[in-house]
Amino acid sequence: MPYSRHAWIRYRRIDACMRRTSRRFTIHDLIEACIEATAQFHPDDKSISKRTVQRDIKFMREELGAPIIVEDRKYYLYSDPSFSLESTPVTEDDGILLHEIRQMLQTYHEFQQTRELDAFIARIEQSIHGTLSPNQKIVELDHFDRVPGRQYVATLYGAISKQQPLLVTYRPFHDGQASEAPFSISPYLLKTYNSRWYALSYNHAIGQLVQIGLERIIDLQPSDEDFHPPTGIQLDRYFADRIGVSADFGAMPESVQIWVKPKQVAYVRSRPWHESQQEISQDESGMVIQLHLIINYELCAKILSFGPGVKVLSPPSLVQKIQDTVTEMMNRYTEEIQA
């Protein structure tokens, strides 16, 4: 629903005023009542504008069905004294919305909070006449059920919240079945990409930020070392300069120009590769876009996924990398044909 906790506090107080038949309220009375109500939760916010309360009344009428009228062009009240926001029934449309929310929540049911909320919504659904059956789907979402390592999400979530270092036993992809000696990390941020979970962490042993792929964790235990807080990084913007999660330590964003085939132009426009994407030029031969980001594995994979629909123009290092990959692919197929 399109309202915040702050707004809902105001709606509840306006509702309470409307139900008080022993007194009539002007717009200024309602403003004072809302200030008093919100002060309990937001003591620093001591002013609510007339425009805000007028918008609240409009929203309550149009979206919450509140029968608010104005008498003598001055006093606000309910035309139906029995109306109350607290007794407003949940509609069938609300039930469908809740059903869809449950499906989305189940994608991340490794979080305890999500499981509790899902159970709460399920109880509400059962009380709504005509709601969808529990197994009926409207939205099909990607799930991470088969991804190894998801069992560590809750542990990492708790460690991040409590600033608790962890001792990790890890198996890198390139080592096959071999595993590294346990090492301590200070976990900072959980992230999903391409149906996999990652934990941005500080590796105490090497003194660097690392990406821990959860599917490669063998064991995870509390560490006795002190937590190393993040310094010099913005966690909320850490992944903003790349596609995906990978990047060499200390890598810096570069300017990348890519030619796009005419038939792919509409698609690339509708689904930008990166937030930095800009159109440099366009004519009958195609479009040129520019990106400012770290060149990493995911960017190369994105380029190759478009096949002949795109061509890297710069920088030369990326042009060479894509050329080498395409050449190796061609050689693989040539070897199979000759064999």
Care to describe what's here?
- This protein is of the alpha+beta class and 339 residues long.
- Helix content is 35%, strand content 21%.
- It is built from 9 helices and 11 strands.
- A 5-stranded antiparallel beta sheet has the order 6-5-4-3-7.
- The longest helix is centred in the C-terminal third of the chain and has 23 residues, at 316-338.
- The radius of gyration is 28 Å and the shape is extended.
Q: List the helices and strands in order.
A: HHHEEHHHEEEEEEHEEHEH
Structural shape: extended
What is the arithmetic mean of pLDDT? Answer: 84
Main sheet record: 5 strands, antiparallel
Taken as a percent bin, the fraction of beta residues is 15-25%
Give the CA-CA distance, first to last residue: 62 Å
- Helical region count? 9
Structural class: alpha+beta
Instruction: Report low-confidence residues grouped into runs of 5 or more.
Output: 128-132
Strand runs, count:
11
Spatially, the strands of the biggest sheet line up as 6-5-4-3-7
Rounded to an integer in angstroms, the radius of gyration calculated over CA atoms is 28 Å
